[in-house]
Amino acid sequence: MIKEKIKKIFARKENRRKTKGQSLVEMALTFPIFLILLSGLVEFGFMLNYYLSLVDASREVARLFSNYDHEYVDADSGSSFYESAVEQVIVVLEPRDTNDTSRKIKIHGNLIDTDKNHDNEIIVSVYSISGGSSTLLNEHHWSGRQASHFDTTEVDNRIAGNAPNVGAVIVEIFYVYEEVLNLPWLDPFIGDETVLYAYTFMPQSSSEPTPTP
Which residue among 5, 24, 26, 112 has its CA within the 20 to 30 Å range from the CA of 199? Predict the structure, then answer.
């Protein structure tokens, strides 16, 4: 009886050692996967925050300049409506006040290799829409490194065929997102040239077509 009890005690200890060893092996195998998933979620959160900031900036500027004359030129600076809109986007994303840390998008200094067609870009376009057909009045590029996602065909496709005669201003922002965590195992998924794109399409009174008598 005593021998059997001793055997049972040692058998329990051996089973406990095997269970602890198995748990350590499982943790060692799953921890890298867990770390990759967690870091990926954090990096995606940063990217999403940047994208939402771009969307907010495009909406804010498009809403502001929808009330301005698209042919306006500032008498003092000589800046046109389009140049002023681009400058306002930059101010919203990257305030001139260096003490203002509420924004983290540095759109001026974030430039990719000039041999590649990826760069920060701001495009302001104004269209006149009449009878369901649009006409591009003017389009201004900040850096000239990105092509607009809009043309007359695209604008026509986005409006109803019986749409009233209206004008429209479109603010587009291209931003080259660079990894915040800069972890090597995220490069295959995010890379160093992820271009975030945001735009706002807003009605504008000054570019409305002149009604025919």
Answer: 112
Distance of CA 64 to the CA centre of its chain: 20
Helices (H) and strands (E) in the chain, counts: 3, 4
**Which residues are within 8 A (CB) of 72 and not within 5 positions of it... i.e. 6 or more apart?**
80, 81, 84
112-167 pLDDT per residue, tens: 444 444 588 999 999 998 887 899 999 999 988 889 999 999 998 887 566 678 89
Element (H, E) at 95: none
Q: In whole angstroms, give the CA distance from residue 33 to residue 10.
A: 36
Strand-pairing partners, residue 172, are 123, 199
Strand pairing of 133-141 and 121-130?
antiparallel
* Burial label, 68 (beta-carbon count in 10 A; 0-12, 13-18, 19+): middle
